[in-house]
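G.,

No rush on this.
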Amino acid sequence: MNTYGYARVSSSDQNLGRQIQELTKFGIPENKIFCDKKSGKDFERKEYTRVLADLKKFSPPTLSKSPKITTESVSL
């Protein structure tokens, strides 16, 4: 099974560490975690685009945004 993670913060002065740590607790290897430091309203995010392109190659995944998992869990 191919497992990917996506972490994002809105600005470059914010830290992705906690999100990455949570994703690795779910068993996602760090080399499969894509990260962006850019506003969520902008979908022109480099790593977001990369992870979506990779996901299209495999069966439908479930994605969730760690800090707001109760409000922003999405199944593709």
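When you get to it, here's the other one too:
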Amino acid sequence: MGFFSKLFGKKNNSEPPSNTESQSKLTSKDIIETMLLTAQVAMDKGDYELAIETYKDILNLEPNATAEYNLGSMFAQGKGVEQDFMEGAYHFHQAELLGDEQSGRICLKCSMDFVNRNLNDKNPEQIYTDMAQFIKRVYPNTNDVNLEVCRTLYAVAGNHFNKQEFSEAFKLFRAAGEFGGDGYSQNYLAVLYNAGRGIEQNDIVALYWFDKAVDNGAADVAQTDRDGLLNYYKENFTADVFSATMLKLSEWCQTGSEDVPKDEAKAIYWRKIAENNGEMSGAYAVSLISGDCVLKENFDKVFEWPNIDGEDIKLRFQTAFEITYRSIEGDVGDAVFRVNGQNFTCRDSMSGEIVEDILSEDKLGERRTYNICKLKCGIKALRHYHNIPTFDSDDREWDGDFNISLYKDKHGINLIYIRSGYRIPRVYIYVGLEEWDAEFASWLKYL
């Protein structure tokens, strides 16, 4: 007897209304109890279609844990309906919300069965997409679909890994690591590539995934291995071979390959590693953590700092990036990105505790401010804010807020420029200030 069969057919303990009761005293509770009894009799006779129809009728009248549980059982087993672990999990979860704790455990079992069904016929992207659909259906009120997808895939992948089913584990870790950006799944990908378990051994690809794991919050498990691999290359390869190896990884990131997804930011990063003979201090790491947007290199590395008086001051940086939104109505506030190991959210970068006011100016409703600000992420920055108000609804594309934060980290001086407004949300990231006019020295003193 299978797992679901052992639990199948949750009985309703209520007795049907007595025949001696008058019709005038028949309550809604009596009606539900009669319908539950009808559905149970139908299940006992194997008439699952009638049972399903009756349970659905009950749920149209009111929430009921027994009806939800037994619907989940029939969907999970494919009795009276095509087997559907997603619908089974949905009904078990509804029963759990109504107080049936056992349903919560069976809902998790349905999640595992959903992931593993036809696993060999799916690629990692399909696995991630299907799991996202599952989460949206089963947990419609979740605030972070991607987080729940990655948690589920990571758990099921870990189960396969522990049973040494490495091919299955690899596919699931790849789904969560590449398409969900989950750092701990990326770390396991690196482990599998490094050991050649479930996939052909490739320690250069392992280095890529260890590094991504460090970027995405799994430094506690991945950084030692990443640094160890890189140091091994530096110590055992000639300078030319080391540079060629890093440039090969950079090329894979630039174009994308079977093992390394297209990753323009990391293409630049590994090229810098090659140029600096393995020194990470010279490689500016910028990555996109989350948000419905795209990170790409910005080849214009010059930013014009808005001066208080006179012409704007030109600043040249070593590298620059741009975050653009897939939708023209995109909201800059939902993007999370990382610069040299420091996480930023757009909203946090646009606000914080003002430490010192330098200048505030209002002209015809247009506001400009300069201040020293402690951003919500904890970084001290020289911040410039410029607001252009909306006067004409036909001209809204030119309206918006402009937030500029100039700050220093252990690598140098960086700048984040966030432009928000109607159909124009953009984030520009400039890293490694290397050239500036003498006039700009008066601003640098604030850092």
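The chain has a mean pLDDT of 84. The chain is about 45% helix and 20% strand.

Enjoy the weekend,
O.
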